């Protein structure tokens, strides 16, 4: 599918749903104007209010989500031909089952569907813009593919993830990383790239990963995460890179490419300006920049201005992109197409799962320790959208301390440090650290833990790399490699 056609369809969808959104969401228009900012974003306070006055969905409604996860895990392995040709229909069908139930049988179900639709459009707009803009930048590393060079790129990518997001950094570096290791590229190279650049690396700033940005919008100071978890981030990154180097030392070094003496060459550098526009558009909101005008209110629409900007950037970046860079990157739209179809099903089918989890977290927050918040947030972030998972457990931890996530001052007090009402328990700072670290780090546990994971997998497959299946990724790599490291992180920092 050409990008212009994809954008026309999505923009048409925006135009069609805007009147409906305006009619359905008049009472929360101000909140939409100030808090609908990026992928996975939403008005958590309004969501809590709705949840508190609505009946929870039946447990059986989680079945479509479970089926979709099982299909994603087993389809490419056991029935690849069927899956390759019909995964869009499977994802859409399962999502439609849940949507119909919410539309006709659930109190406030239409509100939930509209809210999820907004989240999905924001999600795909951001990913499309970052994917296309970075695809027009060709980076060449004129050095030999070897462990130390690879480790340096992975560490640099981890830092870069905090500046342009895990998606931007992943799309910018995955192809040059594969070219650098041409002739010696193994499946573990792709897996460790996903571990480090696509997930753990983005754990220092709100730009790095969506959960941290939502925390920022709710009142957590911008530099709170880096100032409180930098040591956890650094230890974890170095540990994972250390394991990678041990793997990579067993692979013969590659041949040094011919070059004119430049260690790094960049073709299509003008696309960095497009990446800059995307990042700036994320922050074009009065909730982020004090005094910034609300574009939604000015134009009398409840949603969509930022998304139109992002789709426009994607169109311009592709139309005006450097042809040599696009050819060098073997650029095509298959990775973003796969993400778009699979995640529309994931977004729809996980609505009941998130509601049930949110209710459980709220009801049991008082008995949750730091350990439980860490492992519950982490394990669910590996298979669910980590942004709403983060919000649910953030709300639960605030409730444990008698605070309200809908109150900016309460969140600020929570981040600054509030004594626990339970004698002998730790203060609120440790709880927020545990939730923040787990939500970001555990996204690396599965291909669906974070959107860049699937995109990197698809790009590598198109390049002919033998990428592990969904189950092999979990049982051969993430469980034996990441889980022990995350266990040590818990034992050292959160076993309190």
Give an overview in words.
This protein has 496 residues and is mostly helical. The protein has one domain. It is built from 22 helices and two strands. Strands 1-2 form a two-stranded antiparallel sheet. Helix 8 (187-196) packs antiparallel against helix 10 (224-248). The model is unreliable at 6-53 (pLDDT under 50).
By secondary-structure content and strand pairing, the structural class works out as: mainly alpha
Structural Rg:
22 Å
N→C terminal distance = 52 Å
- Give the low-pLDDT segments: 6-53
The total of beta strands comes to 2
Largest sheet: 2 strands, antiparallel
| Structural domain tally | 1
What is the tally of helical segments? 22
Spatial ordering of strands, largest sheet: 1-2
Q: Mean of residue pLDDT?
A: 83
Shape: globular
N to C succession of SSEs: HHHHHHEHHHHEHHHHHHHHHHHH
Helix content: 55-70%
Strand content: under 5%
Characteristic terms for this protein:
496 residues, mainly alpha
In short:
By secondary structure, the protein is mostly helical. The chain is 69% helix and 2% strand. It has 22 helices and 2 strands.
